[in-house]
Amino acid sequence: MPFLEIVHLDKHYGANHVVRDFNLAIDKGEFVSFLGPSGCGKTTTLRMVAGFEFPDTGSIRIDGKDVVDLKPNQRNIGMVFQAYALFPNMTVAQNVAFGLRIAGMARADSDRRVAEMLTMIGLPDLGARYPFQLSGGQQQRVALARALAPRPKVLLLDEPLSALDAKIRISLRDEIRAIQKELGITTIYVTHDQEEALSMSDRIVVMNQGVAEQVGDPFTIYTRPATRFVATFVGTLNGLDARVLDAAAGTVEIEGQTVTLGRPLTAAGGGSVGLSVRPEALALGPGLASLSGRVEDVSFHGPVVRLKISVGGQRLALDTFNTSAFRPPAVGETVTIGFDPADALVA
Amino acid sequence: MALTAGSGGRTARSWAWVGIVPFLAFALLFLILPTMQIVVGAFRNPEGAFTLQNIANLFTPAILGSFWISIRISFASAFLGCVIGFGVAWAVTLGELPRWLRGPVMTFSGVASNFAGVPLAFAFLATLGRVGLVTVLLRDWFGINLFALGFNLLSFWGLTLTYLFFQIPLMILIITPALDGLKREWREAAEILGASPFQYWRMVALPILWPTLLGTLALLFANAFGAVATAYALTGSSLTIVPILLFAQIRGDVLGDPHLGYALAFGMIVVTGVGNALYIWMRTRAERWVK
Amino acid sequence: MRLQHFWAWLSLAIGMVYFFLPLIATFEFSLRMRRGVYSFDAYRVVLADPNFQATFGYSVAMALLTIVMGVVLVVPTAYWVRLKLPRWRPVIEFITLLPLVIPAIVIVFGYIRLYNTSSMLPLTGTATGTNFLLLVGYTVLALPYMYRAVDTGLRAIDIATLTEAAQSLGAGWTTILVRVILPNVLVAVLSGAFLTFAIVIGEFTMAALLNRPAFGPYLQVLGANRAYEPAALAVIAFGITWACMGLIQLVTRLQKHTSARR
């Protein structure tokens, strides 16, 4: 029995269809990310779960109960905002205690709970500080503590790390995930950063223009993208234009070179198809399928070396690990590129 | 902190202050010295020696009464201006009235806050004076005789009502940015943590706005206290608020003691000065929290 | 949010009634000059009155001179302080806020005492001297608004880089101010100018106590003696103030379209 169920959620803003028939079942304790570009409807969906927006149709069930008709302050949900939203007139401790005060908890109990939360986020001594005295990362941790203090059923995070520096983002990412796992709280995390989504989530929902294009665990989303959008949005993708030689046998021709994909193609013989393959799925040297090309550029990205190789008039990016044994080819050298046909998406 | 372009050579830097000499001279000659003249004069007797007698002479029933009326009118118009101005500003920002209303309201507030003095007095005379539009309408349509009920435009409440015409817009102009500064996320965060709208206002919004509200009250108070023209045009010299008293004193030494005029003016500066200082103090406090 | 909507509209309605009623009443009153029928007689009488023309002309001239003096005083100062003397900024800003604290009546009282015929600068002795004093007084009154407008305008442009560029091309300080800085803050200056105009036109206290034939005292005398003309004048005065504010809005919106966003 899923803990959080979103069923046939639909919303229009005037003529704009921002969320189209969204369906999702989340288990208790699961960490699900909504990933997509700006305007894809991920934040709107999150806000409908929180109660700040009203769906045109559909229902949202938390622990079996439909909450669509409940106000946000009745849903027992915790939320962390992109802009932290800490109350500036209250200290850190008072901020964290806010939900507990509203619920009428006795002072001694709420003090204890606040101390507990502050220790959990690693800021036990900052209770008396005001938000303007804290750094961005500290404020966001306090916001997390504030959201979790009243023991909500569901935790919602709306791009919580977008406003922070890269380094803090990475460390906070791990912290948030660790806390979430420790508490076992059902979580929805909205982000446009694929690294965040891939590294933190149990499952990812990739959204585009109000539609959930694919739902799956990070590995599947990345290696087996279901649609062209998912393939291009998540990770980098090489795009090659090919001409079908034999649709049944799956043979195509790319810039005069023959490649056998080993599976039947829907396009007719003589027609054109697009081939998509990830840079790291390509390797130097012959493989199950091979292409020959000329090295145009070699660039170092720390642990990875990226080669730009031209195959006839088309360009490919090839990523390979920068190990001590690796000898990068020179610009202008002719190389063989090998890959597994199963890694190539056909569109 | 960006480096300024003023570091062109050691000699160039030491002469830079010359650039603001005209302004400082102007301020000195036409703002600071005249004010000092008054302040110092308040503590001098006709022979030129230091004395507190002028200040002491302020404590006559007539003059104290004048200050008291001024304070009451200023406070009444400031308080009502704050409340009503807050209501209108709230309606236009957070009250979710149509967006297009805000621009005209702000422009009108800008106009009305400068519409003081003689024309304003005329406007209210034409409205609530003896043959004013509202007076006549109330009599003809509803049978209510305002003046028989004791209302008189040339009185405490009449002047207060008139002052509101520029106090309310001033409040709107100052409080609107503060209301804009109330981030939507605060309300949402409070709501998701279980707070009702009333609890949000009581525990978050009003505490945040408090310094600005108090400060603006002080500013409005000082503003009303120093206003001359409207009162003069409306009441002549009949309602002896402090500025009117000072006006008459400057014109014709009605108090029979020129140095008393100084003391009066000094008293005015003290009141308006305290009001403004309070406003600035409160504003810096408010800005500290909400960066 | 039904209840909230009700309160919002109610607040606005109360505000509108309070503000529009006097204006409507004034306008209605001003039309009542000819017995029994609405007419613009009051306006005709007023506009034909030589006293009106004289005092209005005087005040308009004063307003324009005040604007010039204000610009000449404020623009170079604000520029110089921003560029070379940032530490003086709080002091200068404090000075520009003083006219808001010290009531106009106190300032003009100070002028009368300080610059009367028995002092070093006997300005009140002659008509020209008194005119000058009034001009200066008006400049002081307008100072807070003018300075804030110009300072805001300067903040939006990078004066340090503009100055260096101009200097490297051989410009002297006057050229820089007049041909580089001023054009770029023209919109801000205009805002301050319109506000100054509105303030000066209706000003009463200083003009009355210095006995100058300005529009403010004329209005007051007329109000004491006549019934319908003052109402017409009030409408005209309100119209002028509205026009000034409208022009400020227009000019500010023009700037938003022409200045590049960073």
The assigned structural class of chain A equals: alpha+beta
Average of per-residue pLDDT values of chain B: 83
Largest sheet of chain A: 6 strands, mixed
What's the arrangement of strands in the largest beta sheet of chain A?
6-7-8-3-9-10
Helix count of chain A equals: 8
| Percentage of residues in strands of chain A | 35-45%
Count of individual helical segments of chain B: 13
Radius of gyration of chain B: 24 Å
**Low-confidence runs of chain B:** 1-11
Alpha carbon gap, first and last residue of chain A: 37 Å
DSSP E strands of chain A, number: 20
> What characteristic shape of chain B results from the CA principal axes?
globular
Shape type of chain A: elongated
Give helix % range of chain A: 10-25%
Q: Greatest contact pair?
A: B-C, 80 and 87 residues
Please sum up the structure shown.
Chain A is built from 8 helices and 20 strands. Chain A has 347 residues and is α+β, with helices and mostly antiparallel strands.
Question: Mind explaining what this structure looks like?
Answer:
By secondary structure, chain A is of the alpha+beta class. Helices cover 24% and strands 35% of the residues of chain A. Chain A is built from eight helices and 20 strands. In chain A, helix 2 (92-102) crosses helix 3. The two termini of chain A are 37 Å apart. The model of chain B is unreliable at 1-11 (pLDDT under 50). With 291 residues, chain B is mainly alpha-helical. Chain B has helices at residues 10-14, 21-42, 53-57, 61-93, 102-114, 118-128, 133-142, 156-180, 184-192, 197-225, 229-235, 242-252, 258-289. Chain B contains 13 helices and no strands. Helices cover 73% and strands 0% of the residues of chain B. The mean pLDDT of chain C is 84. Chain C has 262 residues and is mainly α. Chain C is globular and about 75 Å long. Chain C starts with a helix and ends with a helix. In chain C, helix 1 (2-30) crosses helix 12 (228-258) and helix 3 runs antiparallel to helix 9. Chain C folds into two domains: 1-39; 51-261, MetI-like (MetI-like fold).
